[in-house]
Amino acid sequence: MLADIDNAACAEEIASVVDEHGIRGVGTDDGDLVSALTAALRGDEAGFSVLWHALQPPLLRYLRVLVGDAAEDVASETWLQAARDLRTFRGDVTGFRVWLFRIARHRGIDDRRRVRRQVQDPYDPVDQESRLTSPDAEREALDGLGTRWALAVISTLPPDQAEAVMLRVVAGLDVAQTARVLGKRPGAVRIATMRGLRRLANHPQVLARSPDAVPLSAVDTVQPEGV
Amino acid sequence: MFRAAPVPGARRIDEREAEELLQGISTSADRAQLLRLLAHASAPPRVDELMGVDEVLAAFRDAQDTPTPVVPAPARRRLWGIVSRALAVKVVAGVGILALGGAALAAGTGHLPAEVQHGAHDLLSPLGVPVPDKTTAGTGTAHNPASHVSTAPGHSAPPIAGTPSGPAALSPTALCQAWKDAKKDKHGNGMDPAQRQILENLAGGPNRIRPYCTRVLGSDPGPDPTPVPTPTLTSKPDPHPSKPPKSKHPAPTHSARP
Questions:
Q1: Mean pLDDT across the stretch B104-111?
Q2: How big is the A-B interface in CB pairs under 8 Å?
Q3: Are A210 and A6 a contacting pair, CB within 8 Å?
């Protein structure tokens, strides 16, 4: 059945995406981020480094959807402020995550005001669309194209839905924590998330990638030079 | 008006299903595309997302060197008020906090020995004095939005959101072990590029990984006391001078035991 093929192919692709690094979670020690935070609060640079390595990637992706190309700059500003204000922080790892993303959100909003962007959708996926049609999911994942594609699609959502989805999916925050970052009520977060997922489910880019759509030849997405 | 036949799974996502999808769970094939998108969005970190740590750590070091406490003026006045009131009680009780300004300053930055820090913490806790040893609460939710359709094989990679097991792979010990394993791998499976990048950052360069990991994994007991960029969170002695394992109570009090 077509649906089964679709399902199986997707399942494989999903497995390859999450498995690509083969990270085995060596010595799964829940305490690592907890001890990192403790150390950072005591002024231990190694602790702060672990926090950064764990949180910078999700932060960047959230900001990519929030402010597009300015994501790297705003992420830097976020960490600078976090480093300066760390001594005022109290709480656990989750609290730190919320605190950090709140800073990022405020910096992002400031950046948007500063630049006075007219474009509703700050991350313009237009020039990405034509390239992101390769069925070679594993390589895409390695190149980051799959992620970039996913973020581009999420960026087309209305801002409150896009933010809710990113904070739930990518930042790993639950409803209450997301509500604190966004300054909204939990009920509003649930609704925004649900609506966002509905839109994503019906998004042309999502629907178009099913195998029975326009056949995608196994061509390199990277155009050879001179073509 | 003509209506197309309903697409399978065109039923709308409700809140319950939304929560399941966020966990990467779906019982219907027609959500597979959406799950795929969410899986891509939360895929493990890439090397290019782990650049620029040096500047951030430099800012962190600068922030540590700030001599004055970052306490805004109104809070500082409150600080004095609370401390002096509390001290009137505590001094009588014999806690023996040091000179007022110095203790408040030192306590505020966490640079007191643990026992005194506890006392200061109790005094000054409304104002954000760090607890010396434990963090509050646990590791947060066990939220694991790794996407998988029910038919997919179990996976082992931590998704981007950083579940409790994810960041464990970033500890120096885990990274060095992964580096060692990759070297031994007969199939030529190299180390994951993102992990390798982190290890290079920690070790201070690609050529420094070997000596760094020898220290981390080996029986070499002696760390450099110099603040080289290779501090670890393992059981190595901490070169940072702020917390001796045992601390003598500085204030003379009556002897504790008969």
A1: 50
A2: 319
A3: yes
Residues A108 and A97: their CA atoms lie apart, in Å, by: 16
The 8 Å CB, 24+ separation contacts for B240-246 are: B240/A42, B240/A43, B240/A44, B242/A42, B242/A43, B242/B110, B242/B111, B243/A42, B243/B113, B243/B114, B243/B132, B244/B113
State the Cα–Cα distance between residues A224 and B1, nearest whole angstrom: 48
Of A46, A93, A210, the CB nearest to B232: A46
Tally Cβ neighbours within 10 Å of residue A136: 16
Structural tokens at position A222: 């990277």
Lowest mean pLDDT among A56-70, A197-211, B10-24, B244-258: B244-258
The C-alpha atoms of residue B118 and residue B139 are separated, in whole angstroms, by 22
Q: For A24-81, write each residue's pLDDT tens digit.
A: 223 223 357 999 999 999 999 999 999 999 999 999 999 999 999 999 999 999 999 9
User: pTM, whole model, 2 decimals?
Assistant: 0.58
Query: What Cα–Cα distance (Å) separates residue A203 from each residue in B129, B151, B170?
Result: 49, 24, 36
CA distance B107 to chain A (A): 11
Burial A180-195 (b: 16+ CB within 10 A, else e): bbbebeeebbbbbbbb
Give the whole-angstrom CA distance, residue A98 versus residue A179: 10
Instruction: With beta carbons under 8 A apart, name residues in chain B contacting A24.
Output: 156, 169, 178
Q: Return the higher-pLDDT residue of B66 and B178.
A: B178
> Per the CB < 8 Å rule, is A18 touching B44?
yes
Q: What angle do CA A34, A35, A41 make, to 5 degrees?
A: 95
Sign of CA dihedral A28, A31, A33, A39: negative
CA dihedral A143, A149, A155, A161 (to 10 degrees): -100
Cβ atoms of residues A43 and B110 within 8 Å: yes
| Alpha-carbon distance values, B36 to A43, A161, A193, B8 (Å) | 40, 18, 17, 18
Give the amino acid at A68: G
CB nearest to A15's CB, from B57, B130, B155: B155
What are the angstrom distances between the C-alpha of B129 and each of A102, A196, B111, B146, B181?
A: 22, 41, 10, 37, 43
Is the separation of the CB atoms in A134 and A219 below 8 Å? Answer: yes
Most distant CA pair in chain A, distance: 59
- Label residue A122 by pLDDT band (50, 70, 90): low
